[in-house]
């Protein structure tokens, strides 16, 4: 018996425990230790028996519940909790069922990149997701050409509506047409409309669908969406007039009230939601839903109506009807008369209601308070009491809203209906209410649970059918699997004299009541024909209990008859039908002819007067209609291949990632997941192909080496009876071996024991070998040390003897030398003393007998002083000269620097700099300077002419002394001469006049006048020059802006030679025929031409036409070229041409970009199917896969297509295929001499596609996240890196785009245990986001028993250390990098230099 078990718990439902003592057969108790440390005695008594076994740790967190070794309730609950809380995975497979837990949080797992990652992938290869179910349905439909259905069910608030929306979005993206149409947009636009008029806030869900819907999305022959159709079931009309506390009415009412201030909404006379009775019953706290804006939601709804073709005036009519319903709820009806048998109306709100709908107010007021009766063939009008009038008012409101809802659905279906062709097949999405049970359950819960009973029956039979088909396909001897069939419960409800029949019978009775119906139920199903699924409550006579498959529910009979009748009087309907203001109101209530078993009012009955042939009551009740529509739905589902999604509400508090095990178990039992587990466990839940079983359990089998399929199958069949003695626990099929529950765990234990025993033997041999090797090394080392030690000791003794002898010699010699040195020193000292003594004696004798003169002594002292003074003076003079030289050098250098600065400033301000910027402005400045020079020369010529005239006059006229000159004239002449002399002196100082000795004062004065004129003209010219300079600065700025724009435009354009570089690509002759079309060249001969020939010929033709001045010919030639290229690119929209030939560059630039995008699109189309198999699945390194594969890794999900196995058995694309595609593209582009920069950009885009696609698939596949797979991925990526570097493409950034995939592969290989590992991991994986790192760590799966899972503490440590990064999970595969076309100047080519083939017949273009 296993060591790990599960025991019941009142709070956690099930808790894990360990077996402290082995259980022996016959023991009454089992000693267990609970996970919290407590020891308990678990009684082993029926019916509980032994506690359920726990699964091995290696199976914890499995994405498919049927892959668990032990299938039972605690294992399912624990696996869901681990995936939801520890791994943040909300989706889990359970066979053919996808279990979805509502996270109550926004998760980044629904973007377009996720859709791209799941598109075209097998369901078994990817992580569980709603997109995976949608892809499986889409692939099955296109492959088998059979209709599909996706059944989404669950409680209110479990996420059914969101799942249905994401499913439809997936179909809209994947099933989109080749050209964008509005079909997908219209299908998605139906969601906000139906949410507005069919969803409401409840205590369990803020956006609860109060109706069921089945949407059939039609697909054409090519798999694209061409139309859709919607069917609805059981709208909760009672919500229109009543809501419990903390709930709201339908969203559309609150949206209208919130948008009441809009100009077009003022005619509706609306107020706040709190002012209307139909919207304020839930309380003030429920008026607004947190996180939503009703105004924005209404705008979204109106946009959706517009997309679906509903005109604005019809939208306003719809809003008028909805506003009228709100005003109708405020109509106050009070009782009057004796005993309250009459009633009267407050007509204030009724007038607004009548005005909005265009009906007579008095008639509506009368028939709301009166009714028409037939007595004895006569028609009588009887007043109604106040309460009955209120019920009639509410019935009218519900009926109006129901008719409006039906009209909206019909309008949506007409807009979504296929126009061009009939759908070849469809995929239906069923979003229907799940099993419901409340404290008080009424007619709505009865119908909902009845529908779930029918769906559960269909689900059980489908699961059983899949199991049966699997056994038949494998030719297994199988016996019928017993499963709980709920047909008796369904017969109790819909059978003869069942609950619905008795209810309809009671509704037809004139005085039928709930009490009478309850007594009939007790008599029929408890007394006369007892049913095991029917009970009577002990404390009530107006209630009954039904034992549903999910739970036992007690229903209160109060309100069943009224809701089943859904009665509304005919007189108010006739008034509405006669409306002349609103055509929509008349359309809603147009009565259809009665007959054919069809009700004229599909949402209710209509009571009419006796004067017509119509019956007073139509016999089709709500229950009968619901039963018919449900049977139609079941027929549709049975004719399709169903796919199931079960939505689970993890908690009732709407808290993100909070798991309540009680609520989860309750829903698991209700939605049929546990029944699926039980059916699977009743048969053979574990199934392996023979190859997978042999690969996993090879250590338990006989034989080795590479074997054939027949040998592998024979080996498995021979070994299994020895491993599992009981033959009932396994069974052999044609291609698989089947095991009952628990047998895989037994095989795992046997495998672990065999591996442990083999490991012990290997360890003993290895340890013995290591011990012997260590002993030999130690012995050899010991002998070597001894030998070296003895030699060292001998050498040391010899050295000691030699050193001793040497020491004696040294001592002897040293002593001799020391004594000799002492003797020589004493002798030298003695001689020195004697010499000094004798000298002193001689000096004393000489001074005594021969003294020196005083002059000699003074002269010697003076010489000494002079030498000292002269040295000091010389040093002081040197220091002064050096300081002066340094100062002079500084001044000279500063002056030179200032001159250089002035020169640079003048140069910066000079006109020459501006002339370099714009040659046109330089010419203008030269013209101005020339103009100034010409004027100055003219003035100088006039001055010379005037001087000549003055000289001539002076020569002809001799000065005569005048005797008549007065003193006044002399004074004036003197003043003029002084003034002229001052002016001459000033001009001489400024350098304008250089006077000669021969010039007279008059001549100088004339020159002064002329120079003044010249100066005035110079000022004018200077002012004009300054004005021109200012204009030049403005033009310079404009020139700079235009130059920048010109550079941008030049980068986006290319010459026509670039277009010819794509000749030998995989595109169907995209470029060459485009140019040769102008030259009448056949398309099939274009590939044989030299590269660039077509572009060169076209360029020469255009240049020749331009030089000859024939603009018409040049324009027509370019037009033909553009038209031909457009045709080759299959683009019907031609770029319009103008008369200016230069504007055709724009058209050519657009064609360049379009051709580049088409090149990448075709290359991506060829690469996309082989990216994931080549980069992730291919095994280029041998020996990494084998027996170390994790349990359940190679197994397909239960019920998967058997043909997928055959497809996977073929050759898997490898990296060689990817490199071949890239190499072919590179060779073609290189042969056409494509510019290197453009080639780098193209391969950068393709490298991003490879890296993003592989990384996204890695993040969504658990089987790819292992150490061995990481090593394989790194090797595959290294091959791609080497290929890019060998082609010189790394400069364009292509290699850098592989960094996220490289780091993801390294993440799978590094250690993941300690905090140091987490720190190193964060520093290493800089190109990955935090979510990507956590996702890979979460998906990491050990493929060997020696590896361990990544602990949650390690994942939390990584999250803490890598904060602040953007929340990105998947990379954007559709990201497009901007392309820049390099400028290529036209080559100096001539026509006679071209090698034109004769087959083109254009040799006349050459010059003769």
Automatic annotation (TrEMBL):
Alphabetical keyword list: Actin-binding, ATP-binding, Coiled coil, Motor protein, Myosin, Nucleotide-binding
PROSITE patterns noted in UniProt: DILUTE, IQ, MYOSIN_MOTOR
Pfam name, any one: DIL
Coiled coil among keywords: yes
Entry GO terms, CC: cytoplasm; membrane; myosin complex
Family statement: Belongs to the TRAFAC class myosin-kinesin ATPase superfamily. Myosin family.
GO molecular function, a single term: actin filament binding
The protein's name in its UniProt record: Methyl-CpG binding domain protein 3b
Annotated segments matching region Actin-binding: 630-652
Biased composition (Low complexity): 953-965
Stretches of the chain forming a coiled coil according to its record: 1018-1052
UniProt-annotated binding residues for ATP: 154-161
Annotated spans, Disordered: 593-614, 953-973
Chain ranges of the Myosin motor domain: 60-752
Domain (Dilute) ranges: 1119-1364
Gene Ontology biological process terms in this record: actin filament organization
Glycosyltransferase in keyword set: no
């Amino acid at each position: 018996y296993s060591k790990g078990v599960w025991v019941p718990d009142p709070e956690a439902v099930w808790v894990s425990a360990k077996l402290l003592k082995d259980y022996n057969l016959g023991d009454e108790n089992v000693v267990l230790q609970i996970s919290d440390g407590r020891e308990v005695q678990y009684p082993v008594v029926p019916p509980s028996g032994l506690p359920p076994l726990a699964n091995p740790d290696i199976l914890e967190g499995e994405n498919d519940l049927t892959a668990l070794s032990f299938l039972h309730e605690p294992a399912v609950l624990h696996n869901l909790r681990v995936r939801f809380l520890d791994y943040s995975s909300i989706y889990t497979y359970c066979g053919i069922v996808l279990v979805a837990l509502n996270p109550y949080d926004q998760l980044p797992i629904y973007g377009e990149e996720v859709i791209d990652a799941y598109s075209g992938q097998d369901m078994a290869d990817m992580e569980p997701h709603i997109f995976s179910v949608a892809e499986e349905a889409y692939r099955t439909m296109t492959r088998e050409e059979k209709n599909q259905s996706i059944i989404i069910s669950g409680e209110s608030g479990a996420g059914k509506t969101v799942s249905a929306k994401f499913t439809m979005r997936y179909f809209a993206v994947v099933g989109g047409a080749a050209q964008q149409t509005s079909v997908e947009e219209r299908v998605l636009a139906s969601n906000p409309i139906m949410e507005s008029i069919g969803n409401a806030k409840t205590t369990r869900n803020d956006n609860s669908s109060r109706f069921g819907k089945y949407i059939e999305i039609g697909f054409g022959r090519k798999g694209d969406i061409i139309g859709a159709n919607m069917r609805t079931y059981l709208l909760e009309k009672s919500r229109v007039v009543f809501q419990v506390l903390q709930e709201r009415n339908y969203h559309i009412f609150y949206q209208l009230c919130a948008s009441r201030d809009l100009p077009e909404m003022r005619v509706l006379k609306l107020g706040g939601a709190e002012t209307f009775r139909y919207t304020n019953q839930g309380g003030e706290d429920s008026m607004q839903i947190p996180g939503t804006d009703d105004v924005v939601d209404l705008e979204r709804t109106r946009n959706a109506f517009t997309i679906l073709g509903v005109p604005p005036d019809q939208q306003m009519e719809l809003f008028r009807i909805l506003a009228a319903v709100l005003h109708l709820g405020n109509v106050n009806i009070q009782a009057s008369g004796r005993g309250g048998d009459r009633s009267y109306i407050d007509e204030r709100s009724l007038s607004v209601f009548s005005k909005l709908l265009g009906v007579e107010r008095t008639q509506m007021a009368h028939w709301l308070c009166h009714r028409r009766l037939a007595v004895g063939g006569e028609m009588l009008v009887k007043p109604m009491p106040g309460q009955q009038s209120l019920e009639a008012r509410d019935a009218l409101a519900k009926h109006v809203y129901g008719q409006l809802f039906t009209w909206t659905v019909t309008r949506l279906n007409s807009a979504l209906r296929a126009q061009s062709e009939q759908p070849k097949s469809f995929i239906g999405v069923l979003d229907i209410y799940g099993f419901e049970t409340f404290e008080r359950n009424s007619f709505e819960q009865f119908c909902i649970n009845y529908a779930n009973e029918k769906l559960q029956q269909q689900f059980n039979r489908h699961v059983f059918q899949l199991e049966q088909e699997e056994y038949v396909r494998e030719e297994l001897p199988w016996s019928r699997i017993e499963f709980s069939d709920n047909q008796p419960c369904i017969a109790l409800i819909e059978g003869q004299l069942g609950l619905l029949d008795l209810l309809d019978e009671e509704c037809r009775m004139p005085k039928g009541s709930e009490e009478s119906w309850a007594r009939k139920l007790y008599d029929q199903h408890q007394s006369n024909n007892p049913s095991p699924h029917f009970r009577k409550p002990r404390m009530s006579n107006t209630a009954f209990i039904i034992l549903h498959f999910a739970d036992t529910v007690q229903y209160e009979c109060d309100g069943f008859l009224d809701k089943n009748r859904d009665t509304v009087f005919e007189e108010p309907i006739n008034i509405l039908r006669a409306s002349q203001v609103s055509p929509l109101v008349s359309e809603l209530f147009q009565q259809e002819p009665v007959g054919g078993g069809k009700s004229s009012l599909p949402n209710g009955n209509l009571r009419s007067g006796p004067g017509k042939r119509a019956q007073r009551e139509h016999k089709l009740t709500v229950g009968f209609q619901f039963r018919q529509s449900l049977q139609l739905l079941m027929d549709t589902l049975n004719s399709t291949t169903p796919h199931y999604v079960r939505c689970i509400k993890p908690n009732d508090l709407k808290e993100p990632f909070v798991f309540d095990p009680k609520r989860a178990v309750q829903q698991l039992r209700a939605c049929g997941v546990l029944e699926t587990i039980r059916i699977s466990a009743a048969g053979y839940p574990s199934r392996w192909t023979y190859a997978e079983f042999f690969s996993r359990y090879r250590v338990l089998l006989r034989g080795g080496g590479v074997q054939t399929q027949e040998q592998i199958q024979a080996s498995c069949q021979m070994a299994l009876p020895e491993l599992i003695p009981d033959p009932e626990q396994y069974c052999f099929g044609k291609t698989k071996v089947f095991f009952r529950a628990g047998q895989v765990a037994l095989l795992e234990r046997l495998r672990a024991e065999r591996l442990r025993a083999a490991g012990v033997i290997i360890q003993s041999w290895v340890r013995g070998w290591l011990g012997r090797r260590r002993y030999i090394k130690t012995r050899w080392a010991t002998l070597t040390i001894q030998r070296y030690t003895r030699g060292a000791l001998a050498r040391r003794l010899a050295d000691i003897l030699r050193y001793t002898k040497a020491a004696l010699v040294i001592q002897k010699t040293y002593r001799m030398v020391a004594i000799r040195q002492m003797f020589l020193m004493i002798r030298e000292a003695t001689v020195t003393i004697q010499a000094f003594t004798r000298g002193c004696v001689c000096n004393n004798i000489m001074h005594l007998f021969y003294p020196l003169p005083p002059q000699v002594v003074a002269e010697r002292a003076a010489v000494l002083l002079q030498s000292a003074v002269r040295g000091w003076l010389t040093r002081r003079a040197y220091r002064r000269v050096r300081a002066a030289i340094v100062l002079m050098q500084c001044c000279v250098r500063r002056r030179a620097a200032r001159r250089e600065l002035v020169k640079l400033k003048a140069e910066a301000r000079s006109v020459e700099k501006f002339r370099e910027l714009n040659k046109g402005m330089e010419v203008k400045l030269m013209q101005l300077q020339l103009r100034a020079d010409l004027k100055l020369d003219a003035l100088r010529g006039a001055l010379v002419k005037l001087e000549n005239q003055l000289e001539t006059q002076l020569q002809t006229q001799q000065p005569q002394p005048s005797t008549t000159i007065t003193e006044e004239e002399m004074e004036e002449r003197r003043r003029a001469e002084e003034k002229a002399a001052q002016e001459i002196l000033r001009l001489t100082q400024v350098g304008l006049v250089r006077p000669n000795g021969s010039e007279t004062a008059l001549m100088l004065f004339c020159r002064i006048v002329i120079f003044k004129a010249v100066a005035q003209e110079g000022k004018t010219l200077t002012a004009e020059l300054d004005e021109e300079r200012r204009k030049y600065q403005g033009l310079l700025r404009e020139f700079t802006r235009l130059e920048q724009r010109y550079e941008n435009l030049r980068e986006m354009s290319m010459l026509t030679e670039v277009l010819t570089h794509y000749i030998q690509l995989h595109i169907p002759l995209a470029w060459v025929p485009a140019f040769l079309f102008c030259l009448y060249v056949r398309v099939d001969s274009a590939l044989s031409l030299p590269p660039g020939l077509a572009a060169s010929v076209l360029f020469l033709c255009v240049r020749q036409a331009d030089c000859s001045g024939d603009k018409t010919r040049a324009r027509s030639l370019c037009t033909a070229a553009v038209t031909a290229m457009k045709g080759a690119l299959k683009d019907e929209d031609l770029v319009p041409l103008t008369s200016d030939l230069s504007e055709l560059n724009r058209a050519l630039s657009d064609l360049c970009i379009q051709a580049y995008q088409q090149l990448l699109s075709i290359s991506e189309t060829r690469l996309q199917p082989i990216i994931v198999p080549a980069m992730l699945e291919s095994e280029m390194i041998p020996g990494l896969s084998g027996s170390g594969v994790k349990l359940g890794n190679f197994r397909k999900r239960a019920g998967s297509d058997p043909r997928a196995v055959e497809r996977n058995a073929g050759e898997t694309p490898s990296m060689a295929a990817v490199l071949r595609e890239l190499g072919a593209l590179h060779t073609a582009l290189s042969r056409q001499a494509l510019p290197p920069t453009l080639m780098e950009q193209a391969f950068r885009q393709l490298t991003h596609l490879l890296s993003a696609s592989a990384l996204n698939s890695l993040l969504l596949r658990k089987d790819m996240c292992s150490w061995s797979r990481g090593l394989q991925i790194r090797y595959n990526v290294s091959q791609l890196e080497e290929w890019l570097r060998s082609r010189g493409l790394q400069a364009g950034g292509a290699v850098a785009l592989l960094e996220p995939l490289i780091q993801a592969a390294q993440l799978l290989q590094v250690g993941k245990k300690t905090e140091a590992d987490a720190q190193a991991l964060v520093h290493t994986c800089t190109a990955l986001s935090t979510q990507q790192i956590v996702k890979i760590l979460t998906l990491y799966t050990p493929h060997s028993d020696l590896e361990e899972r990544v602990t949650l503490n390690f994942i939390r440590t990584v999250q803490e250390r890598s904060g602040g990064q953007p929340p990105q999970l998947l990379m954007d595969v559709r990201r497009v990098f901007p392309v820049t076309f390099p400028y290529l100047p036209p080559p100096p080519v001539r026509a006679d230099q071209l090698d034109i083939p004769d087959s083109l017949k254009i040799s006349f273009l050459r010059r003769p």
